[in-house]
Amino acid sequence: MQLDANVVAEVVKCVQKVIDGSTQAAIKLCQLGVITRHSTLPRGTPEEGATNQLPDRSNLLGLMACLKDAEGYFLCRLMSVLGHWGNGEVITALQDRMKQVSKDEMRHVWGFYIGSIECIGGPQALQILQELAIGESPVQNMARYSLKELVTGGCLDYSEGYTSDQEQRWGEFCRTDK
To answer: 116-173 pLDDT, tens per residue?
Structure first.
């Protein structure tokens, strides 16, 4: 994806504001991620994770470094930013951060964590979502939903549901005799 110079400048400005702790800049950066790719669907596939879409690798490293101290709503939004713009490196950083999330934060953070992993995709994301999807808690239900989105490529219009090709792909993925 090639971004025009004005968008690149806006992205870089937002990245710096996020690094400085701005939740509003994180929201704007998520919006730019969706707008620039014209989609909210997963960026990666089960076989191949998304690539870093930020103008410079240092932008990604700066955002990932923020994970260490981020808390609450800012942490949630930062995870979302990393899902919309980052690559497989982000998944490992997100996993590490989830090990440190307090029980009080946990219920708020899970959805953003799962959504970010779904958005990036790749074999590591697929494995994590499969492991999280076992059981019947709300977190496990979110993981199952994200797993289906990743495997099928996501639903374009939820009022119409998944296409027959997507349902077939999901069915093949779920087969236990493979």
So the answer is: 999 999 999 999 999 999 988 888 899 999 999 999 998 877 777 888 999 999 999 9
Rounded distance between C-alpha atoms, residue 38 and residue 52, angstroms: 17
What letter does residue 22 receive in the DSSP assignment?
Answer: -
The residue with tokens 């730019």 is: 32
Domain that holds residue 23: 5-174
Alpha-helical runs (H) found in the chain: 5-19, 23-37, 57-66, 72-85, 88-98, 103-120, 123-132, 138-152, 164-174
Distances (CA, A) of 131 to 11, 68, 99, 125, 162: 34, 24, 15, 10, 23
Number of domains in the chain: 1
* CB burial string 107-134: b at 16+ within 10 A, e below: eebbbbbbbbbbbbbbebbbebbeebbe
Rounded distance between C-alpha atoms, residue 105 and residue 2, angstroms: 36
pTM of the model: 0.89
For 35-80, give the DSSP string.
Answer: HHHT--S-SS-SSSPPPP-SSSHHHHHHHHHHTTT--HHHHHHHHH
Query: To 5 degrees, how large is the angle CA 27–CA 33–CA 37?
Result: 155
Q: What is Dmax (Cα atoms) for the chain?
A: 51
* Rounded Cα gap, residues 90 and 88, in angstroms: 5
